[in-house]
Amino acid sequence: RAGGKGLHEITFDGYRIQAHLQDGKVRLLTRGNLDWSERFGKRIPRALAPLAGEAVLDGEIVVEDGSGSSDFGLLQADLSEGRSDRFLYYLFDLLHLDGHDLRPLPLVERKAELERLLEGAPEPLRYSAHFEEEGEVMLRHACRLSLEGLISKRRTDPYRSGRTASWIKSKCLNRQEFVILGYTPSTVSDSAIGGLLLGVRENDDFVPVGKVGTGFSRKVAEDLFRRLEPLGRKTAPTRVKLDAALKRNTRFVEPELVAEVEFVSWTRDGLIRHASIRALREDKQPEEIRREGGAAEGGPVDRPKAVEALTHPDRLYWPEAGITKAGLADYHLAVWRFMATHLVNRPLALKRCPNGYEG
Fold it and tell me: What is the pLDDT of residues 51-110, one digit of tens each?
C-alpha cells in the first residue's frame, strides 16, 4: 500500500476490545459482543471514564514482555491469576464521540481525533501510532523485532465492521485460530492431553486441518484435559472422512473451544505443518473460524514429510517453553537441510537425558 494511500500499524497479540463510554460508565466488549468489563479489573475503566461523556473506541488489551512486545501467554496468565496491574489498552480507532458518528470520516481524521482525545491520558491507555513508510520495509523491521506482523489500512476509508478490503494483515509467521475437534490423551499422564485435533468451518461443517502436539506446558495440558473431557462425544464432529493418522488415539469432542496456533506452512492436502499451540481464545466463536491462506486460498503451501512413529510424543523436553518430543522432531525435520552437511558421515556422540535436560 505505497504511494501515500496506506498506513501501517503494529499487530498486537491480545484481545480486541471496544470501549463504550456513557455518562461515566464504561463497558468493555469483545468482537463477539461479550461484556468483559469485569475481567480486566478497574484500572482501564477508571482511565477511560473521564475522556468523554459518550464515546466508542476500538483497540486491543495486551500485556507486554520484558522487551516491550505484547505476549498473549502473559495476558492469559494474568487473567487466570486475577492480576490486572500490567494490562495496557492500545487504541487505534474512534467511532463515536459526544453524539457525533465518526465512522463516515476517513481513517486518518478519526485517528487524529483519537490522538487528541488521548493526549495526557493515564498509563494504561496508549495511542496506537501508525507508519506511512513502504509496507514491505516496515514488515521486515517488525519481523526482526519478533513482532506478530502489521495491519495495513487505507488512509481515506470510512469505518466498516468485519473483514473488508480496507485492511490487510501481514504476518511474520503463520498464525490463526482453529476449532478443537478432539484430543489425544497424554502417554505420560492420566490427567493431561497429548495433542489436539483441529479444524475450520467450511460449508456448514468443521473440516479437519491436522493435529498439534507441542507448545503447551504441563499446566496447560492438564487444564485442557479438564475442559475437554466433559465435551466428549462418540463420533467425529465432521462429515469429512478422517484418515488413520487423524483418528489414531483421538477422543472426539463437541466443537465448542477455539485455540490459537502457530505453524510453518500448509501442506498441499490442506493440513498445517509444524504446529505449536499458543493459547485458547475465549473471545472467538467456533462458527466464525475460517481457513486463512493455504492451498484453498492460494496461500503458502508445502509438501508433508513422513515422520517415524514416536514413543511418548507428548513427553515435555523443555517444560518452560512447552516443547515436546514431537516438537523437537518437527524442528529437526524443518532444519535438516541446513544441519545435514555438518552431521552426515561425521562422528556423533549421543547423551541420553531420561529425566530431562536438567537431570
Answer: 988 999 999 999 988 777 888 878 888 888 888 899 999 999 999 999 999 999 999 999
DSSP label of 12: P
For 124-134, how does the pLDDT look when each residue is reduced to its tens digit (9 = 90+)?
A: 999 998 887 77
Task: Give CA separation, 55 vs 35, 51, 110, 162, in Å.
Answer: 16, 8, 12, 20
- The answer to whether 128 touches 114, Cβ cutoff 8 Å, is no
Distance CA 159, CA 194 (A): 43
- Residue partners of 124: CB distance under 8 A and separation at least 6: 43, 44, 47, 87, 88, 89
Pairing of strands 301-302, 265-267: parallel
pTM of the model: 0.61
Which of 315, 314, 329, 322 is CA-nearest to residue 220? 322
Q: What is the DSSP string of 221-283?
A: HHHHHHHHGGGB-SS-SSSSPPPHHHHTTPEEB-S--EEEEEESEEETTS-EES-EEEEE-TT
DSSP label of 3:
T
Backbone angles phi, psi at 284, to 5 degrees: -115, 145
Q: How far is it, in rounded angstroms, from Cα 196 to Cα 236? A: 13
Q: CB atoms < 10 A from the CB of 224, how many?
A: 20
DSSP collapsed to 3 states, 141-190: HHHHCCCCEEEEEECCCCCCCCCCCCEEEEECCEEEEEEEEEEEECCCCC
What does 98-127 look like in DSSP terms, one character per residue? TTEE-TTS-HHHHHHHHHHHHTT--TTEEE
